[in-house]
Predict the structure.
Amino acid sequence: MINNIIIIDILGKTKIYLKILTPLRCFVLSFGLISLFTFSSCQKKESIKQDDRPNILFIMSDDHSYQTLSAYENTYLQTPNLDRIAKEGVLFQNSFVSNSICGPSRAVLLTGKHSHINGQINNSVTFDSLQPTFPKLLQKAGYQTALIGKWHLRSEPTGFDYYDRLIGQGDYYNSPFILNGRKTESKGYVTDVITDKSIEWLNNRDTSKPFSLMVHHKAVHRVWMPKTTDFELFDTINFEVPETFFDDYTGRVAAHHQKMSIERDMDLVYDLKMLDQDGEIKTAYRKMFERMISRLTPEQRKEWDAYYDPIIAEFKKNGLEGKELALWKYKRYMQDYLRCIYSLDQNVGRILDYLDENNLTDNTIVVYTSDQGFYMGEHGWFDKRFMYEESLRTPLLMRVPKKYGGVRGEISKMVQNIDYAPTFLDYAGVDIPKEIQGKSLKPLLTGEKETDWRDAIYYHYYEYPNEHMVVRHYGIRTDRYKLIHFYDKIYDGWELYDLKNDPGEMLNVYNDLSYEMTVIELKDRLSELQTEYKDLDRSTY
Ligand code: SGN
Ligand code: CA
């Protein structure tokens, strides 16, 4: 059975995209139309001319919540440059990850397969770099491939003509990099440096080939160190905490167990920069922050201290406690986090301008996403990992040039990071290997009407025990419901959320008899998904 898209040129101008279901129908249609139209091919691979393939610019940040991207929500800050991608392209309203943590998310992106298949179930294992990835396939098909910025997969990158990666999490200031296997130093703020390096690579690339450039920012990962020029931003804003900030986790055992509470777990020195010169504020992570801040040059350190020292003095004077301290911590956290986003947005603007100035806008697909979502105080948290909305969702903006049929607007279908690899292969005219578990987003991006799309997504998180102590779990999310199974020696139990009636996921209705049938149906669908994605044997990890 063929399931291809054919492209027909009418008088060399208009393109019609048709989905052909059977070889017979394909033959009949082509036979009927061949005398009227120039018929390209029933094979997707041949339908894109070698020299007409789009460049791919894939920009990914780390831990950027959709709540702090103004194309999604206007509450906290404006991100005009990021928003531009959505305005000139599409915004995915329902974009999710399959395992809300860095290394796994990156492995899913590269392979188009869930964690249990690509092997990267958590941040501790080493990525099997011998397995097929989309950069390798693009490279084989004649693309020039590059990766600049965060990698975090332990094995060296493969499938790239050029890479310049951070070491582990990297540093916000003067971070070292590994350039094609060789350690180098850098000067300056990491978001600027990654952008400079990306622009430099674009300037020096082989222009005879299409490119696939992955720009992977460190921002806005913990510990949210802003650029010195951005210190005063958001200083005077009194951020209101989210409605669920003082959640008591009634009916949700795993939520009781976590260690990612702003009030309890956020470190005053490390996370909130209260590094007093007298050393009176003694915290568990103080030494780690001292190491981190020692990377600053004397000039940078001077600017740093000039901004934070008065805040530290004020903090020590006020001696806040309880709820007041929790609210102060929230505000401090938000200020630094948002400053990192501000710089990220500016730098995305620089790269978009570069495309404009170098006639690349019309033949480059631009993607912006994050490796997962993040908590901005919802449930009282920072970090990610849970299958709850704030960390399951991730921003996804894509601008596909009109020349490749790109539509404009919002897409509400549920998409997942397993879909990136097949999408890029599809646009490059490369056959999508059948082992890939995601689906090409091209039918959605070209506005195909009768697209047979998924009705549910599958999620599986494994990193326990770990510093934030989120119990292992898997689950299913449909348009309306989310069913989660936490499974671990420490706790084994189910949760069900009715997202229509309870978007904040405060009420676990798993044991509510009025949802009995829903639970049965969702469990059936969940086990179908586990069969489809071959995630049946959980005893092996
Ligand atoms: C580090 C952070 C954690 C974070 C993980 C994973 N601690 O370990 O807060 O959850 O990374 O983040 S830190 O003290 O090193 O900042 S991930 O995005 O890389 O997966
Ligand atoms: Ca991350």
Notes: Residues 62-63, 102, 221, 371-372 surround calcium ion (ligand 2) (CB under 6 Å). The chain has four domains: 2-42, 50-224+344-379+387-449, 228-332, 461-532. The two ends are 36 Å apart (CA to CA). The chain has a mean pLDDT of 91.
